[in-house]
């Protein structure tokens, strides 16, 4: 990318190049930065990995005074501050990890104008002491802006709800002249409206970026021995960092233990662990290079690790928003990443039961059920996953060519007769049995259970031999996903007909079903995996640079990516700069990093060139 003529550089672009080492802004970054730097409020919805932090960091540097950033996670604050310091920016944080003396020293430095960006936990921000500090800052060095990160935490119906976020409207009431920017990667319209209303940002300009994450490959497989399936998926991700999501704490513990036995560096994370263990596991995930975190949804919000190469779901998430947010933790560095999920009938029944048994009001339950149905439609859709996902967020797109449906298109068939047989089997057996028993009836298997209930005498006994057991499992799953049947967890997963099944049974409505797709072989998957590789001759230098980076990170007690991103190392390995001017052309090497590491990098590269 060629640099613009210096005379054409805006102050924001000059900062981007000098401090952060990037040549140009992405997407709507520049428009957001200029809007906030001019003193206006903004509500920013941008996908994970879209570069949200620059949208408040640069305006804070452009405006006089201290930029105050509200961030809900201690580990994330620490890493953001470490990364800013690496770039030569005076940054600090105030949270419960600091002792009283350290916190006072930071408060004094802020009052003296020695801090440019101050990160604070929401719990601390609403204390009298911090509100007094804000008054002192406005009277002294000034307040550059308020940035509210992970702004969806204000939504009372979201799983990341933080009650302190409800009090953040006090910022505007006390400091009406200070611009505010609220940022999130959660996209649905209802949450957007709730954020604007609760944060007092109804008059703010809304910046809505594309929600497409083209570097992520989406795959959904039917659950059939999920551990074996997960192992097959992970075989292609040895020595890479990733997250495996499970629904329950027990399953998290068991899966992490099993993965360790299989040779993976796996750690559990859930709300039932004590805070020290959680913090330690999160620290290891952030700082080591090949940790697999097995977690409930308690893990993930604000995870800033850019080199997560995969996110796997062993259970169905609760909605498309949750799925989008969780899978969005992969590939934040823009490099190829994978989102893999396995799900079955039991998952649908569990999620439906969760909604039915919740104490939410009826209208909320209806909304939750609609969201679950949208997710099931995504799982069963015969068209490009990315198109279905983006369509949900109101964004049009073309087939991506990089999801399981595009790479291995499913065949559709007229499943009206199969649907009638399945529905009839459930009806004639009294709607008291799960899929396994109904399949035995359809296939004409004389099991003890079939004999006990006299189901071998039914007209539907043995009428389904044209389909295999696996095919029938897929048919029942699709009928439940389509809302023609529902699984009743209270009755051990018994399948019951819904009102929508009536026209199908009567032959008044046809049903299109997917044939099961055979998983691709390893060679085909490897060919399809779009990894931005290195030339063979550059790989040893890249490995040497990674070792150097890890040593530096350990010396300084920071995550490796805070020193330099993989993308920067790849450019160094392939372009092999030989002086400071050539180093300045490498993406992600700002002036402070060139000053700190330039000499060592040039020496290391020269040694390899010899």
UniProtKB/TrEMBL annotation:
Keyword vocabulary terms for this entry: ATP-binding, DNA damage, DNA recombination, DNA repair, DNA-binding, Helicase, Hydrolase, Isomerase, Metal-binding, Nucleotide-binding, Zinc
Protein name: DNA helicase RecQ
Residues of the Helicase ATP-binding domain: 33-205
Gene3D superfamilies in alphabetical order: HRDC domain, P-loop containing nucleotide triphosphate hydrolases, Winged helix-like DNA-binding domain superfamily/Winged helix DNA-binding domain
Residues of the Helicase C-terminal domain: 226-373
Biological process annotations from GO: DNA recombination; DNA repair; DNA replication; SOS response
Upper lineage: Bacteria, Pseudomonadati, Pseudomonadota, Betaproteobacteria, Nitrosomonadales
Catalysed reaction equations from the record: Couples ATP hydrolysis with the unwinding of duplex DNA by translocating in the 3'-5' direction
Cofactors named for this entry: Mg(2+); Zn(2+)
Residue span(s) of domain HRDC: 535-610
PROSITE patterns: HELICASE_ATP_BIND_1, HELICASE_CTER, HRDC
UniProt-listed SUPFAM superfamilies: HRDC-like, P-loop containing nucleoside triphosphate hydrolases
E.C. number(s) listed in UniProt: 5.6.2.4
GO MF entries: 3'-5' DNA helicase activity; ATP binding; DNA binding; four-way junction helicase activity; hydrolase activity; metal ion binding
InterPro entries in the cross-refs: DEAD/DEAH_box_helicase_dom, DNA_helicase_ATP-dep_RecQ, DNA_helicase_ATP-dep_RecQ_bac, Helicase_ATP-bd, Helicase_C-like, HRDC-like_sf, HRDC_dom, HRDC_dom_sf
Signal sequence extent: none
């Amino acid at each position: 990318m060629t640099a613009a003529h210096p005379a054409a550089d805006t102050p924001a672009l000059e900062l981007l190049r000098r401090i952060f080492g990037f040549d140009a802004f992405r997407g709507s970054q520049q428009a957001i930065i200029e809007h906030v730097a001019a003193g206006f409020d903004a509500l920013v919805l941008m996908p994970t990995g879209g570069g949200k932090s620059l949208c408040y960091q640069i305006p804070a540097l452009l405006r006089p005074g201290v930029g105050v950033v509200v961030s809900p996670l201690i580990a994330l604050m620490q890493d953001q501050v470490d990364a800013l310091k690496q770039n030569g920016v005076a940054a600090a944080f105030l949270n419960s990890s600091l002792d009283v003396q350290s916190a006072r020293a930071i408060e004094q430095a802020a009052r003296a104008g020695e801090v440019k960006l101050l990160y604070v936990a929401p719990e601390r921000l609403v204390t009298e002491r911090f509100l007094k500090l804000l008054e002192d800052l406005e009277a002294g060095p000034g307040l550059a802006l308020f940035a509210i990160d992970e702004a969806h935490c204000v939504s009372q119906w979201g799983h990341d709800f933080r009650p302190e976020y409800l009090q953040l409207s006090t910022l505007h009431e006390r400091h009406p002249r200070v611009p505010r920017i609220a940022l999130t990667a959660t996209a649905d319209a209802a949450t957007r409206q709730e954020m604007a209303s609760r944060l007092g940002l109804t008059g703010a300009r809304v910046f809505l970026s594309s929600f497409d994450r083209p570097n992520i490959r989406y795959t959904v497989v039917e659950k059939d021995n999920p551990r074996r399936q997960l192992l097959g998926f992970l075989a292609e991700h040895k020595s890479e960092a990733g997250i495996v999501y499970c629904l329950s704490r027990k399953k998290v513990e068991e899966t992490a233990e099993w993965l360790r036995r299989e040779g993976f560096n796996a750690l559990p994370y859930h709300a039932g662990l004590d805070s020290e263990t959680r913090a330690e596991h999160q620290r290891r995930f952030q700082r080591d290079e090949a940790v697999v975190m097995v977690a409930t949804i308690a893990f993930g919000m604000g995870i800033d690790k850019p080199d997560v190469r995969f996110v796997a779901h062993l259970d169905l998430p609760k909605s498309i928003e949750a799925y989008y947010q969780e899978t969005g933790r992969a590939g934040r560095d823009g490099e190829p990443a994978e989102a893999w999920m396995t799900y079955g009938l039991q998952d649908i029944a569990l999620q439906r039961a969760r909604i039915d048994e919740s104490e939410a009001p009826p209208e909320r339950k209806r909304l939750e059920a609609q969201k679950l149905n949208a997710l099931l439609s995504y799982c069963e859709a015969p068209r490009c996953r990315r198109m279905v996902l983006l369509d949900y967020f109101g964004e049009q797109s073309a087939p991506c060519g990089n999801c399981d449906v595009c790479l291995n298109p499913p065949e559709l068939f007229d499943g009206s007769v199969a649907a009638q047989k399945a529905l009839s089997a459930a009806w004639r057996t009294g709607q008291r049995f799960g899929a396994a028993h109904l399949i035995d009836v359809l296939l004409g298997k004389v099991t003890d259970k079939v004999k006990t209930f006299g189901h071998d005498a039914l007209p539907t006994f043995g009428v389904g031999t044209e389909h295999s057991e696996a095919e029938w499992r897929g048919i029942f799953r699709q009928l439940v996903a389509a809302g023609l049947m529902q699984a009743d967890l209270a009755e051990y997963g018994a399948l019951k007909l819904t009102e929508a099944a009536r026209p199908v049974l009567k032959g008044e409505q046809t049903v299109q079903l997917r044939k099961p797709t055979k998983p691709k072989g390893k060679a085909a998957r490897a060919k399809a995996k779009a990894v931005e590789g290195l030339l063979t001759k550059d790989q040893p230098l890249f490995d040497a640079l990674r070792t150097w980076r890890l040593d530096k990170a350990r010396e300084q007690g920071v995550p490796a990516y805070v020193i330099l991103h993989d993308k920067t190392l790849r450019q160094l390995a392939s372009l092999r700069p030989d002086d400071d001017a050539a180093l300045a052309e490498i993406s992600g090497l700002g002036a402070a990093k060139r000053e700190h590491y330039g000499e060592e990098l040039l020496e290391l590269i020269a040694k390899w060139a010899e």
